[in-house]
TrEMBL record:
Pfam families: Pkinase
Positions bound to ATP: K35
Source species taxonomy: Eukaryota, Sar, Stramenopiles, Ochrophyta, Bacillariophyta
Organism encoding this protein: Fragilariopsis cylindrus CCMP1102
UniProt KW keywords: ATP-binding, Kinase, Nucleotide-binding, Protein synthesis inhibitor, Serine/threonine-protein kinase, Transferase
Protein name (record): Kinase-like protein
Residue ranges of every copy of the Protein kinase domain listed in the record: 6-259
Entries under SMART domains matching the protein: S_TKc
GO cellular component: cytoplasm; nucleus
Amino acid sequence: RFYSDFDVIAELGSGSFGNVYQALSRLDGCMYAIKVAHRAARGESDKDRMLKEVYALAALSDQADTATFHIVRYHQAWMEEQRLYIQTELCTTTLQAEIEQVAPMQLPLSTRYKCMREILLALEFIHRNGMVHLDIKPENIFLKNDQFKLGDFGLVSKVSSHDVEEGDSRYMSKELLSGDHADLTKSDIFSLGITMYELCLGRSKALPSNGPEWQSLRSGRIIPPLNTPDDLLQIIKSMMNPTYQERPCASGLLKFPEL
């Protein structure tokens, strides 16, 4: 079906789950992104785990809510020889690519605020629907028609879950890494906070994946980036609060006048 219904134009990227391709549909003449799993499902439980992303995307995409503009749109999914294919809208670029393009400079302040607001709208919607993303980072924030969109729901989980997969350690909260799953929504808030911190650094310094600096960033010792107003820095610090119970929720953050 993949090769009969689509013409592969280019490989867009690769991750732990699989490869993502830009593909032209022979059915409607439109371009899409198609994520193809690296391997076949190993039994029903493995298949169910792989399908979590599909169930989440389908449930979120079906709702008439403006927040869905800030989630990469899901179209369909199917299995071929026990391998999962997920078809979504094709975005123009990623936040990661934008950061690298302007490095070592920073993205404009208005862009930083816009990114935070739009991904918070997506997060508030996801959390309100009883889900958590658990893999927020610049590579998983996409841009299309001047809109920031959250994508790659490969680690999505229920808010109440105690069985979660670990994402990228550079963006993970300390409590998630230590196995504390009491409030997974606050781990999403931390990940967006440290993503925004990296955005303000302007890629002048890569985020650590472990070690003393990793610990320092999770202990509230944050060095203010250049050209970052204090009100934005205070919002980021609140999102990265070492005590997760004291981090604001997405809806609370959206009430800040700056956002």
